[in-house]
Amino acid sequence: MAPYPILLAVSFACVVAAVIWARSALRLERSWRRLLEGSGPSGSMAVSLARSAYRKEVHTTVLYVVVAVISAAAAYAGGWPRLMQALLVIPIAMTLVWGQRFLSEADLIEERAGLERRAEEVLSQENLAPRRWAARLAPQELGEFEGFEVGRAYEAGTGLMAGDFYDVTLTGPKRVAAVIGDVSGHGIEPSITAFQVKYLLRVFLRQYRDPAQALEELNAVISAQTRGEEFVSLCLVVFDLAAGTLRYASAGHPPAWLWHDGEVRPLRSTGPLLTLNPKASYSSREVSLDSGDLLLLYTDGLAEARAGGQLFGEERIAAHIRRDPGVGADVLCKSLLAAARDFATGPIRDDVAILAVRRT
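and the corresponding structure tokens:
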């Protein structure tokens, strides 16, 4: 009996399709095995997806093979013998057996995807929170202040939350205050304390013209709110354009450096760390301020950048200013941070905040 050409064409097409699906199944099988070797004991969503896709393509390959065989046999047999038709039971049985598995795997994959998506959202928020805190405590933009050029640099250490902060704010028509500080410890609580100190100080600077008085009031308030082992170092400087002076007070903070009269001089601590003694007294000191004078403030992470047993140190900071005292304030801060990075033999582990203010 002459073959049926349509059935032969169908059979050939099914063979081609079966080969394509078989090659795809082999690739998926290799991918599944590789993923399985690299996954943990509980597996992963990627492994489940690869295994499910592999099984589906095997099922499709078998289906096309069976249809190809039946179509070829029917083309020569002149019909659809019952034996040939019975071969359809194979892919149907596979569908019945694997179909429920496919659906279960799809539900499981969807559930895992949802869990992983929620986990990623939580991790994203956890990663975003420190950056947002840092943006409040050490903002990239400080605004413009008539008569002054302001520069800054900040680099977070290895801790999750920052405790370093700085601020430049107007306290009167011709008065500008600059402050930099560091709260001991790491984590959320020192970061919250730093936030409180920064914004409480803005309030006290409007009440007291003398920075030492502002520090005493701040110390009393913060001491009543913080834990006993949490200390704050802080340097506060008030520039008075009308008087042509700079008045400062420092609570146990590393010395600020002032470029004045062709020389760099340190502005050292004038009182203890905040919260060390709730009734501590602070003094303030005043120096003249000329056009071109530059003040550099920083936190201890800069001076304590380490190369083996050697620290970057205060004298290297002063020498960096002497090398080019007329450089832009922002350039000075960034070049100083770069110099500390180059000096250190490993990552700088502590937060580093640098603030420079020049009278123009």
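(Above: one complete record from the training split.) The radius of gyration is 36 Å.
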